[in-house]
Amino acid sequence: MVTIGGVTIKGDVVLSPMAGISDSPYRQITRRFGSSFAYTEFVSTEQLLMGNTKSLDMFRYLETERPIFFQIFGSDLETVVNASEIAASKKPDVIDLNMGCSVAKVSHHGSGAGLLRNVRLAGAMIEGIRKKTGLPVTAKIRLGWDSNSLNYLETVKVLEGSGVSAISVHGRTKAMAYTGFADWNAIGEIKSKAKVPIFGNGDVASFSEAMFKKKKYGVDLVLIGRRAIGNPWIFSETPKEKIDWVQIKGVILEHLNLMLNFYPSDDDYALVLFRKHFIRYIENTGFPDGIKRELLTITNVNQFIDKLESVKIDSKFLETSEIENESINCETFVSLA
User: Fold this and answer.
1) Does 50 carry a binding-site annotation?
2) Out of 101, 156, 204, 248, which one is annotated catalytic?
3) Does 250 lie in the same domain as 224?
4) Total domain count for the chain?
5) Closest Cα to residue 185, out of 163, 156, 217?
6) Is 11 annotated as a binding residue?
7) Contact yes or no for 61/25 (Cβ under 8 A)
8) pLDDT tens sequence across 233-285
């Protein structure tokens, strides 16, 4: 159990914030399966101040998702601090500052991982958000901009001095993006020296691996990102490989229904958004390729459901999923369909 400000966090694993993935429908499902709390997708502070409806909409959540962490990003101190007040009006439990997004259009403009090059500014942002909102403030960082600037210990020290309540650490540099391997030894080093709770993130493929890393490196909690897409079972002790098709199909339909309710429209908007989840749910299940291709082109929800319901799969998983160097990042998820 971890305390963030006055917020009590129970559990060992949590869904990492991912744009296009960690929206309210999937947060609801992963919370039910065991994710310790809920991070929103990251939201631009500049867009919040402009009153952008789509950005504000990303802060929608249900009470069942609590504790709820709103993640924001920005490069200008005044903008970030003033926008945090708008975020706070939606009653989150915690505000999280993104210092880890590696996408060029974010990091090269000083936001996200760009703040790793200006940790004093990041510290001022955290102090400003905390004073403006009265809420606990956390941060998500990387180890540094590149291998020649591994400033993670300095970053943690500055953030602690600014009153940060917890820090989540992705064990890669900005330059690595999602290539190579996460350095959990560095994460462990941070935990050994930190005064605040530390959450570890990077290359966690299962619940058992998360528990192993939690124990070995002493982190307070483990974030799971890409491996959690289409796999809420990763937050429980029963791996997806042991779940039969009927149960998987039930969760797929539950998720789709939540998407339809959360993104109401007169067209196939919710169904199109759901495709990136769907292809992960059916990975390595023996799902027929022909029907998969058909389902990824269907634009009528009832037709999609009828076709899915017709699929019968007797076998269980024969292999585990491998996710390497895919086009997924903190800005967007590009469907492999």
Assistant:
1) no
2) 101
3) no
4) 2
5) 217
6) no
7) no
8) 999 999 999 999 999 999 999 999 999 999 998 889 999 999 999 999 999 99
